[in-house]
Amino acid sequence: MPKRRKRREQQHLRQESARRKSYTMGGDSPSELYKPGFPMNILGNLKIISIVGVVIAAIMIITMVLTRNQGNGAASGTATPTAAESTTATPSVSPTPNPRVFDKALQVVDASKYNYQATVKTSLGTFVIALDASGAPNTVNSFAFLSEKGFYNGLTFHRIVPNFVIQGGDPNGDGTGGPGYSTKDEPNKVRNTAGTISMAKTSGASDFGSQFFINLQDNPSLDFDTSAKDKFYPFGKVTSGMDVVQAIGKVPTNAQQQPTTPVTIESITIQQAPKSGGTMTEATIPPQPSPTAAASGTPAPGATTPAAAPTK
User: Which residue, among 270, 285, 302, has the nearest Cα to 100 in the 3D structure?
Assistant: First the structure.
């Protein structure tokens, strides 16, 4: 039988020649042994695979431990607040006080011992007002208290009516503001002549806040004996600088009687002199606690409206 035919029959019967069979299964001759290449030669070695597995497992365990320790360290670092954090972490339970709102005027004048005057410094000049603490002690005390607190500093004469009055002392600048408290009228028989100062108030009211007006001329329609329902009681009079007051009264205004160029009250300084005689010196107000300041946005009693009295 030819060799080719015999080999074909052996393959059909799943048989192979002795030479090929010994090569496949591994014969005695080195040239006939099967030697797999990389990486199959490593994968076939169980010892090497075991060592590699152990090394990988160890690396994973060490990595997990280090990661956990770092996480704990970061957590403990943020858990302890710094001094700045503990300061800002405490919420403020009190609203921000408004420095121009009070619940009352503290007693700052002694009408039995002293005469008082107010030096008003404005953006157009300075004038001086003699205050009648004996005739209107509560009114003068409130005016002096607010002046000493710096309440009027930076406010404006928000209402100017030529040949009638100039009006100021409103923290809102539109005739609606006040100091947070009100003071009752102190009726007297002093007339509203040129240069006198009275407190402004809402029409029909018998109390006032912080707004005041200075008469540019004699205004009998505002006096104690007027037939009108609203009466205004002067508590002082300009003794020097009336020319400054008149200059303020001539500042151009808009339709709402507001000056087109603001006239600012830079400061009001209260001065005193003994009734027994002596020169005026800056009033010495004894130290005392400030009244409770209301929170910002608190409505201010004693406010007047833009068209409030005095009306011409």
Answer: 302
